[in-house]
Design a protein that fits this description.
With 828 residues, the chain is mainly beta. 4% of the residues lie in helices and 64% in strands. It has one domain: Beta Barrel (Maltoporin, Chain A). The chain contains four helices and 42 strands. Strand 15 and strand 16 form a beta hairpin.
Length: 828
């Protein structure tokens, strides 16, 4: 341990020495400034009406090259943020008006903010019979290193949760259970405001369902992260940016929704003055109880007309939860600032169900049984982040940041099983999980010349996970198992962003050392392991004429298994379908090459990317046939676990396009990708699965007026494949209407208006059996939503530098943080 601390300290000292030895030596001599903003409101000089969606362009004084720009809001107001000190020209234009140029707009360190007040535009001498405003901020943006979905501009997600938002993001797929995949792979890392959250350490799907859609500002999808990002997430990184920001002034909002499927309420309160700011928010969520029916049929491949196991039942499920957060910042001066935030959350997920079934093929006298299940799950957690940022006098782009994070997550599950008939048992099965992480990080940015920069940093993640499982047959002795799992990651990176002729190049490498150890009551649970990984990356982009961009990138990523995959607890809630984790999993590794291009053609905005991905040691759930003795009779059971099954070489194509026609905007696209898996089944036999999958989506909006709008979206995900078969396909359709008032809005949201219930089928084949499952769920929902804003503020974003992305996250029900695998995702 001393060697680890010494190594991390040496790397930190090297960063500080680099800062001390080159204080601006590679860059200019301009001192740091607290960047300001330019605001104003554009008015018709004759009618005195607001001019919305006018083009505002910022240039250096006396220059013609654009350095920033935007469209004014519907009320004519605009705000250009993050503007350094100096003199600027502002050019304002709009169809039917004479262009206006404001010269020598000056920002200084003492007065970094400039309010231009009302800016009058003079109508041109000729009259237009009709003017159609078609320009507005794009819902989907293609940045140099990411795809951005501006969720706050989409009214159809109001009243929903984070899964509803992610379903509308290009390249992402979200299935029935809320499991997220990117380009067909679930090996993604989800961040909140650029940093990790313990809420995803246990059950990603349930955590997303507890996150209100109204709190999401935008979603960023990074398919080829650079060296400064953690190496985890072999498919990429999803960054959810919330609307909570620190402010100047006092303001807040109240919002909520009520519907037949789910309801939520949110309250935000923000205050700031001078160099200090404070923000807080609280959210509550309630999912109405629903009855879902599951039917499962297992047949032996040697005799496909026979039935070895059948069960059918109805499960009632409900959710309720809360979250609260508070954050504050203080700027000591222009060179030193501190930012801290704290988040607390909790939710319950309860199920009650009755299942009936039978074993064997003797239909005249089947070995039938009836099972009553009561599952009570409680999840709670917290995140605390604190960052200290130092800027340097010689250059405002030179920056040193120290960041720490403490994150905890507790998941308690209590399952009661009562079976009668051929199977007779009365048992209580519990699992208590505790996941605590401590992260420390140092990042340094050094400018090189006017446009280039070097980034270097070190990081350590100390992760301790405890799982305490208890199996208590009524009137019998208790059986328990305590499993302790430690996973420590030590990393350092170097990244260089530079321009070569007309090319923007970002390249670098990241070194990560992982040390893991297991300690359990069972001898096979005691082990240690360690591995080193070097993860290089390079991305090259070139901007062409007419706003076209061409990009090519290469990246190597790693995917470590979380407790969802390694927890050795034996979950036999369903007697014939046993699920157990594998503590000896190796990490997945992937190499990806991507070619991207975007263009505009006859009013169509088109984004496209072609990629090839090679994955080794891929982690998938594997099922094998086992046996047990019940009442003196030997019965077949299925044991499911996780394994490094083999390799996958995937080729994929992503397309997204949008088109505005008057007041109507349409968007659509899809993903087409292959699954070429080769590896080993759980019984040691060779397996191969070559398949083609796809995802299609469309959405759009229509503006009846400036304050009345309608949105719609549709989504279809074809079956996703594994080495042993395919998971259920998924589709969803929804529409929304919204009326905006001065400081409020009122809307209605309808999901699946033409389908009260939906069926989802999966088909898994192992070497000796086939399992077919049908899941039926009530789906039609309708709800109303509202939002009221009060106060007047100026927003200033503050984000933590910590971005943990170093674990393969669990999917579906059960799993991490000591949770039990199983539920509707059983593939047995």
């Amino acid at each position: 341990m001393c060697k680890k601390i010494l190594s991390f300290s040496v790397l930190t000292i090297l960063c500080l020495q680099l800062s001390a030895q080159f204080p601006g030596g590679w860059g200019g001599n301009k001192g740091p400034k607290i960047k300001g903003k330019i605001t104003g409101q554009i008015i018709d000089s004759i009618s005195q009406e607001n001019i919305g969606f006018a083009t505002v362009v910022l240039t250096k004084a006396g220059k013609t090259k654009e350095i920033n720009g935007m469209l004014s809001e519907e009320d004519g107001k605009f705000k250009i943020s993050e503007v350094g000190d100096g003199k600027y020209d502002l050019i304002i234009s709009f169809l039917g008006y004479a262009d206006k140029k404001l010269t020598d707009v000056e920002l200084t360190p003492k007065k970094p903010d400039v309010d231009l007040g009302q800016i009058l535009l003079r109508p041109t001498d000729y009259l237009l019979d009709e003017v159609e405003i078609t320009e507005k901020r794009t819902l989907i943006e293609n940045k140099v290193d990411k795809i951005v979905y501006n969720a706050e501009d989409d009214s159809s997600i109001a009243g929903g949760d984070a899964t509803d938002v992610l379903r509308k993001v290009p390249t992402l797929s979200v299935d029935l259970d809320g499991n997220v995949s990117l380009r067909g792979s679930s090996a993604v890392r989800i961040l909140i405001n650029g940093k990790p959250s313990g809420m995803f350490s246990s059950n990603v799907a349930d955590a997303l369902k507890m996150f209100p859609a109204d709190q999401i500002k935008k979603v960023e999808v990074i398919t080829a992260p650079g060296a400064k990002y953690d190496g985890e997430g072999s498919a990429g990184i999803i960054n959810i940016v919330t609307k909570k920001e620190n402010i100047e002034g006092i303001a807040g909002s109240i919002s909520g929704s009520a519907g037949n499927r789910q309801s939520n309420a949110s309250l935000t309160l923000n205050a700031g003055k001078g160099r200090f700011g404070f923000s807080s928010s609280g959210n509550m969520f309630y999912s109405s109880p629903v009855d879902a029916r599951i039917t499962s049929l297992r047949t032996p491949l040697s005799s496909p007309m026979d039935t070895s196991y059948f069960h059918s039942g109805v499960t009632n499920t409900s959710r309720i939860g809360f979250s609260g957060s508070a954050s504050a910042f203080y700027d000591f001066n222009a060179y030193n600032a501190i930012n801290s935030s704290f988040t607390l959350r909790g939710y319950s997920f309860d199920q009650d169900g009755i299942t009936n079934g039978f074993f064997n093929t003797d239909f005249t006298n089947p070995n039938s049984f009836s099972r009553a299940n009561t599952n009570n799950n409680l999840v709670s957690g917290y995140d605390w982040n604190t960052d200290y940022t130092k800027k340097f006098e010689d250059n405002d782009k030179q920056e040193l940041t120290f960041a720490v994070q403490l994150s905890g997550n507790v998941q308690n599950q209590d399952n009661n099983v009562l079976e009668t008939g051929f199977l007779s048992r009365n048992e209580n099965i519990t699992n208590e999980g505790d996941n605590v992480e401590f992260t420390s990080q140092v990042d340094y940015v050094h400018p090189v010349g006017k446009s280039n920069k070097v980034e270097v940093g070190v990081k350590s993640v100390i992760r301790n996970i405890n799982s305490d499982s208890r199996f208590i047959p009524v009137s019998q002795a208790e059986f328990g198992n305590v499993f302790l799992y430690d996973q420590n990651v030590y990393a350092g990176y170097l990244s260089y962003n530079f321009f070569f002729k007309k090319l923007n190049i970002v390249t670098g490498a990241r070194f990560e050392r992982t040390e893991i150890a297991g300690n359990g009551d069972l001898s096979e649970q005691n082990f240690t392991n360690s591995y080193n990984n070097v993860l290089p990356n390079i991305a090259i982009s070139k901007t062409l004429k007419n706003f076209r961009t061409l990009k090519i990138s290469f990246s190597r990523r790693i995917q470590r298994p979380s407790l969802y995959y390694i927890n050795p607890f034996n979950n036999n809630t369903d007697f014939s379908n046993v699920v157990v984790g594998n503590p000896f999993l190796d990490p997945e590794l992937s190499n990806q090459i991507e070619l991207g291009y975007n263009t505009n053609f006859k009013g169509f905005t088109i984004f496209g990317s072609l990629y090839y991905k090679n994955q080794t040691d891929i982690i998938e759930q594997q099922s094998r046939l086992g046996s047990t003795t019940v009442n003196g009779i030997q019965e077949d059971i299925v044991v499911s676990s996780f394994a490094n099954v083999g390799t996958n070489n995937s080729v994929g194509l992503n397309i997204f396009t949008s088109k505005s026609i008057g007041k109507l905007t349409l968007r659509g696209g899809g993903d087409l990708y292959t699954y070429n898996g080769r590896g080993t089944n759980a019984d040691g036999s060779f397996a191969e699965n070559n398949a083609l999958s796809y995802r299609l989506f469309t959405n759009g909006e229509f503006s009846f007026s400036s304050s009345i709008k309608a949105d719609f979206f549709g989504f279809f995900q074809a079956p996703r494949f594994t080495l042993q078969g395919e998971n259920a396909s998924f589709s969803i359709f929804g529409i929304g209407f919204r009326k905006d008032f001065k400081n409020a809005s009122l809307g209605i949201r309808i999901i699946e208006p033409f389908a009260a219930n939906k069926n989802f089928d999966s088909d898994i084949s192992a070497s000796s059996f086939r399992n077919q499952t049908t899941f039926e769920l009530p789906f039609r929902s309708i709800g109303i939503n509202f939002r009221y804003k009060f106060g007047k503020v100026d927003f200033k974003k503050r984000r933590s530098k910590i971005k943990n992305s170093d674990q393969k996250q669990g999917e579906g029900d059960g799993g991490g943080g000591g949770g039990m695998q199983g539920g509707m995702n059983n593939q047995g």
